[in-house]
Specification:
Oligomer: single chain
Number of helices: 6
Shape: flat
Structural class: mainly alpha
Number of domains: 2
Helix content: over 70%
Largest sheet: none
Strand content: under 5%
Number of strands: 0
Distance between the termini: 66 Å
């Protein structure tokens, strides 16, 4: 009886998490389709370069902190220091996010000033905001993961995917209308 209950619970969790992952993956495909359909072809290379630099920066400045969080949080929580540990991890991740934000914004403004990229201050602000958001997002999702709150984690990631599709479609759609 208990084994059946555990099996049903595991299947339910697996189904919810798998459905969320499949939906997030499909949302990514839709987002790429929107980008390739609505964005002007001349920005593909620039967008790919910016995305690559942001991913590299995220892995250099934020990921080491959040990986340590995954490894160390359960022991700190069990010792009664979970809240303090999360505060320190959040501060360190935001510090890494600030470094990435300054690097990304500075590179974007420098590139725009030299005519190497098409967008200037507006995109620099978006990149800086993205860096800080990524830091907080990573800490939040890792917290949900270590607390075994996969339903909330999946809901967060699914809502985030939907928001990115809507935001990306609106941005590219407006850009296409404005810059014909």
């Amino acid at each position: 009886m208990i084994a059946r209950f555990i099996r049903l619970r595991a299947v339910r969790h697996l189904g919810v998490v798998a459905a969320g992952r499949v939906f997030a993956g499909l949302a990514g495909v839709v987002g790429i389709r929107l980008f390739t359909e609505l964005a002007p072809p001349e920005v593909y290379g620039e967008a790919t370069l910016v995305l690559g630099v942001m991913l590299l920066g995220t892995h250099l400045f934020i990921a080491p902190v959040t990986e340590a969080q995954l490894r160390l949080y359960p022991a700190e929580r069990d010792a009664g220091r979970g809240a303090d540990f999360l505060r320190v991890v959040t501060q360190l991740a935001l510090g890494g996010g600030l470094v990435l934000a300054f690097c990304a914004a500075g590179a974007q403004l420098l590139g725009a000033g030299k005519g190497l990229v098409s967008e200037g201050a507006g995109l620099a602000l978006i990149l800086a905001g993205y860096a800080l958001f990524t830091a907080l997002r990573s800490v939040g999702l890792n917290y949900l993961n270590t607390e075994r709150k996969q339903f909330q984690q999946t809901a967060w990631e699914t809502c985030e995917s939907i928001a990115l599709i809507i935001w990306g479609g609106r941005c590219y759609g407006f850009r296409r209308i404005l810059f014909r």
